Amino acid sequence: MTNHDEKIPRHRRKLKITHIIIVLLLVVTVGFIIFRFSLKSRLQSKLDAISAAGYPVSCAELDAWYSIPDFSKNAADTIIEAFSHYFEWDKEYLEKLPVAGRAQLPACTEPLSEEMKALITEYLADNKEAIALLHEGAAMEHSRYPVDFTQGFNILMPHLGDIRKGVRMLELEAVLHVENNEPKLAVDSIKSIFGIARSLANEPILISQLVRIACQALAVSALERIVNRIQLTDKLLTELRLMLVNTENRDGFSRAFAGGRCIVSDFLKNPTSQSLSLYGKPSISTPLITLYKFAGLADADALLHIDLMTNYIEAMRLKPHQRKKAAEAAEAELNKISKIHVLLHTAMPALSRCITIDLRCIANLRTSRLALAIENYRITTGNLPDALGDLVPNYLDTIPKDPFDGEALRYKKLDVGFIVYSVGEDGHDDGGKERPPKIKKGADFDTYDITFIIGR
Q1: DSSP string for residues in 35-101
Q2: How far apart are CA 142 and CA 164, in angstroms?
Q3: Between 183-198 and 234-248, two packed helices, what is the crossing angle to 10 degrees?
Q4: 127-175 per-position pLDDT tens digit
Q5: Cis preceding linkage at 393, omega within 30
Q6: Closest CA relative to residue 275, chosen from 339, 210, 203, 346
Q7: 104's torsion region: left (phi>0), alpha (psi -120 to 50) or beta?
Q8: Of residues 29 and 285, more confidently modeled
């Protein structure tokens, strides 16, 4: 046998080895082509399914999706115009101004000092035209800010900073109306804060929804002060309760997740180092991104991202108390994905935390609505209800559920007034323990309930 092998010419043995290598290379090449084609095909099928469900699948479609009915008034135009009349105070004066500046408002049951009241009056007078336009814009139903979503990660959102300023002005206006014992005007200011927040409800990007929630939190804080300091009529309380119901029935986060799915998917289909750096993420060199795309990892990331974002969108369709667990499960799936999917892990935000923030917002809205119903009851009967069941059916159809555990919101009579509360994100009933205005560094954020307290 050995003698026979030795008789085979050396060039023929080399030829056989070359053939084997060529065949192997061909097999690997064909396999790689099939793998890449399969990835592209699966990705397109996912995109087709999303499109069939009525969602956008590209940044261009997302830009068109963010629209208002033809010939309707655009609240965004009026709100933006308001800030052409905005007068910015110097930092020196802002130091003594609450809400818009660094000073702290007194407790909800306490009046303002004369100095603080005078400062607020002056600040609002300097911005009289801007505030009037904010009220006008807040009353409009539809809104579309001049945002170009075709820019993807490069999108600019300059209006969000102005909206924060506008809402703070309206909160100060509500506070001043309270001090002047003007309940109807104070309620109008609260309605306008919610109206400004509503102008962001359809904006399909996460940062806008977080700003919307922050605006609503300021409105709830101002509302708590109003109910503590002045007596509202039954009519005003009923109007506010209806507004709170309508405010909760928005799908802003679902739209934001759908928008995020478009923006990140578009990026992953054609990733660039510049896009990452503009998005505030660590930059990756262009040669590495080119290699990443060639290896099919970008398409694989896009497939994984679509599935993850779809899970978050589906989580938002669940009852509120079921969303947190579903979001955490989706985040656990992300954490299981190999770190080789660098772009996916880089571009994917912590969405389960955002859903928790949204649940806190729902808890604020529901505790406020329940407190207002109790105030309705007190105005009618002259007494606080002994139990929440006393409010049904004359003041509420049903008792609002706690978005964190699905149980009825809690209610306790106090020596003076009452408290309604949600157990909050830790799911533990702390007896209505109020979160302090300032939390020391290192303190546990989850040992407080979400409260609405009436101390009169």
Answers
A1: HHHHHHHHHHHHHHHHHHTT---SHHHHHHHS---TT---HHHHHHHHTTS--PPPHHHHTT-BSSS
A2: 19
A3: 10
A4: 999 999 999 999 999 999 999 999 888 888 999 999 999 999 999 999 9
A5: yes
A6: 346
A7: beta
A8: 29
Highest mean pLDDT of the ranges 5-14, 39-48, 115-124, 248-257: 115-124
Place of tokens 């793998």: 35
DSSP structural state of residue 432: S
User: With a threshold of 0.85, does the pTM exceed it?
Assistant: yes
Task: Classify strands 410-413 and 450-454 as parallel, antiparallel or unpaired.
Answer: unpaired
Question: Which residues make Cβ contacts (< 8 Å) with residue 369, sequence separation at least 6?
Answer: 241, 244, 245, 400
User: What b/e sequence results for 228-245 when a residue is b if at least 16 CB atoms lie within 10 Å of its CB, and e otherwise?
Assistant: bbbebeeebbeebbebbe
Strands, sheet with 410-413, edge to edge from the N-terminal-most edge strand: 410-413, 418-422, 450-454
Identity at 365, one-letter amino acid code: L
- The per-residue b/e assignment along 28-54, b for 16 or more CB within 10 angstroms, e otherwise, is eeeeeeeeeeebeeebeebbeebeeee
H-only helix segments in 157-205: 159-179, 183-198
In a 10 Å sphere around its CB, with 0-12 CB exposed, 13-18 middle and 19+ buried, how is residue 423 labelled? Answer: buried
What pLDDT score does 249 carry? 72
**What is the identity of the amino acid at 173?**
E
Q: Say which range, 29-33, 117-121, 213-217, has the weakest mean pLDDT.
A: 29-33
Residues 176, 97 contacting (CB under 8 angstroms): no
313: amino acid identity, one letter: I
What percentage of the chain has pLDDT greater than the value 90?
A: 71
Which of the 8 DSSP states describes residue 408? B
Least confident range of 35-49, 111-125, 353-367: 35-49
Alpha carbon distance 156, 111 (integer Å): 41
Beta-bridged to residue 434, according to DSSP, are 449
